[in-house]
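Weekend entry, working from home. Most of the wet-lab plans are on hold until the incubator is repaired, so I used the time to fold the two sequences that have been sitting in the queue since the last round of cloning. Logging both here for the record. First:
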Amino acid sequence: MSRLPEVVLVTGMSGAGRSTAARALEDIGWFVIDNLLPGLIPATVDELADDGSIPRVAVVVDVRGGRFFDDTARAVEALREAGTHVRILFLEASDGALVRRFESNRRPHPLQNGERLVDGLRRERAVLADLRAQADLVIDTSQLNVHDLRRKIEA
């Protein structure tokens, strides 16, 4: 019988540090998959379990997945029903911190849709509200630099 890997779902607000968290997890030995369609997560974890050589998997999911992001809750439930130990890590930050980060890298927010950045942030918070409520760990990165966040992830 194959052993199911431990799974952590890394999600949260755009600009809150998901990429930093993913790199930190990878550096401490997690197999990290970024931006996988949520509907494919259960099959991917099954495949990794069959292989047996990957004990810990981190999957980064966020609103970049568009309408596919809606499948995230079903994917988590399917994993749990299969007996997989799944934890949700949710990263967030204040609107002020996120606005500063987006302005410094000059990238548009994925839900901005040509409007104000804060409108995109408001939409994203609404889309993520249920997943945040289910999170095992919520980290507010508003006052953290990348090194602080890495230390928190490693701990």
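Second, folded right after the first finished:
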Amino acid sequence: MKNLMKFIGLALLTITLAFTPVDKKTIVIDVSHGGHDHGASIDGFAEKDIALNIANKIKDLNRNSNVEIILTRDSDKSLTLKERTEQINDLKPAYVISLHANYSNNVNESGKEIFISENNTQKEESGNLALDLFYSFSDRNVEIKNADFYLLKNVEHPIILVELGYLTNENDRKILTNEEGQTELANEILKAIK
């Protein structure tokens, strides 16, 4: 009888835990530029559109019901850095990834850059997120760098800023501007945040 009561108690506890809602992890994808701010532009391609396309793909491809992905913008509108920072801090996310496309006068310059800030209050967690993303990219032409960009310093949660490639480099531009390349980048980012 004593063992039966233990079994029933354990079964009830298991059932209760199975139906207890799990806290969702909120991930903010900061969609750079927007509106009148095109960001880097070349041959009719604008950074603001590339960032929005990839951000939407990240959100659409997310299959993890415990991860909620929120975009700082979901249309072609302009937000100041201060507005984006306040919006992100109000959401209290587990992570923030700010999406960008790079530009250089040297057309041979290529690859991805992941930026963190030593002045971010969550610099250790930001560094861990940067490493997770570094290893989720299929190519190894990726550098992790320190910078004091406004968002990196003022967002109070783990944050990285990612330059996904150079619009000025022909090979990078192909990846950044076609459906297949954008989907691959979105999947690589998703891999890092799960």
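Plan for Monday: verify the second prediction. The two ends are 44 Å apart (CA to CA).
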